[in-house]
Amino acid sequence: MSVCVSVNTITSKDHNSLTLRPLLEKRNTLESTRNSTGIMTEEQRIQLNKVNAEIKRAYALSRRKKWEKLCGNLDSKTPDSRLWRIAKGLNREDIMSERTNTILDPAGYMTHNDKGAANALATHYQKIGSLDFSETDRQTQRKARAVVHGCRTTDSKEVIFTKEFSLQELKQALSQMDWTKSPGPDGLHGRMIEHLGPVGRQSLLDIFNLSWRNGRLPRDWKRAIIIHIKKPGKEAGSPESYRPIALTSIICKIMERMILARLKYFLDLNDLSDGAQYGFRRGHGTTDQVLYMCQKIRDAQNKKPTNHSMTVFLDLSKAFDRVWKHKLIIKLHEYRRINGRALPWIHDFLGRRVIRVKYNNTLSDNCKISQGVPQGSVLNPILFAIYLTGIEELLTRRCEVGIFADDIVLWKSGAQVEEIESDVNLALGDLREFADNHKLIL
């Protein structure tokens, strides 16, 4: 009985390479041993990793030699059409980089099949949102659950968070959808929803209102298929080298749009948005932030005597994936006065989420995601912005601050360099404490 062996995609010419052929045969032998026995010794793992590294080096050398040969054959008589094809080819990623199935798993071993690579990436994404909690943190979790329970059992004074959705709200949400987007795990394509008739739309609205009343989401609405895109110039074998793109339920996105419209209306009506946060706000952008900061610094320079300025640019690492959902629930309730049916729905929306990574058309096992705001969701931006509530008030005591999504800039102007440096360092200390309390990484 033949044994299927997973190998990297290599062109026929590379298979005939005197260097590659024995290496491929050696790797196939090691893979066959593992596949027939079901286990692999530590020594075999080491040998397999070494052989795989040698294959990559040999492949890179082969590509380089072919490139040198190609360049050597070009001259002034080379047709423009051929030069154009070569130029277009320069923008293509290396085939092995795109199609390799060798990904480092959490234990540091190389995977050598698509299923293993998919599981390695899924585990990597799961670990990003795995947070450590102290006993004080668990009190916060209990408080959040109590707040949600209170919203389920107590009528809200805010009608906008309790009344059911109307057909007009559904039509507005549908008009904002991009129907060309890929479907989520439920397989329901946007074109199917786009062409729903009156009866179908009413049935869809009934489903949304049922979910709204109960504060519960269907299981498929909380699932995602992750498509990984390799970052340019990154090593293909590292999970860090891939940017995850989440494909989620289009049905759920429609309901998210209706909820988002209500949240924005309520926050704008009550002036509850952070002024320093320019991300995810209509009429605000990075250009506005840069111009404002530059003008402030220029104003300081024009003073007599001339003032000095100090600026610090910061980034919150993997911030969206590390949002502590219980802390977010409390902030939604206490800082933004969100209650009624909205809070239980958002709480369920954030919890018990499941992802599967798709790798070369192979899906990983189910992987539970315990924290973070769902990547690719409509509510993701506004929930993250609310999670950062308090940064502006905290930092403006000592410095001026600008925020765009998870990017932060601090600046301070003054006549005395020592005082500026002291205030900036104190502000950085305050920001560090805020990040620690919110499970974020600077």
From TrEMBL:
Protein keywords: Nucleotidyltransferase, RNA-directed DNA polymerase, Transferase
Occurrences of domain Reverse transcriptase (ranges): 210-442
Keyword Nucleotidyltransferase: yes
Record GO terms (molecular function): RNA-directed DNA polymerase activity
Entry superkingdom: Eukaryota
Nucleotidyltransferase listed as a keyword: yes
Protein name listed in UniProt: Putative RNA-directed DNA polymerase from transposon BS
The encoding gene: RTase_583
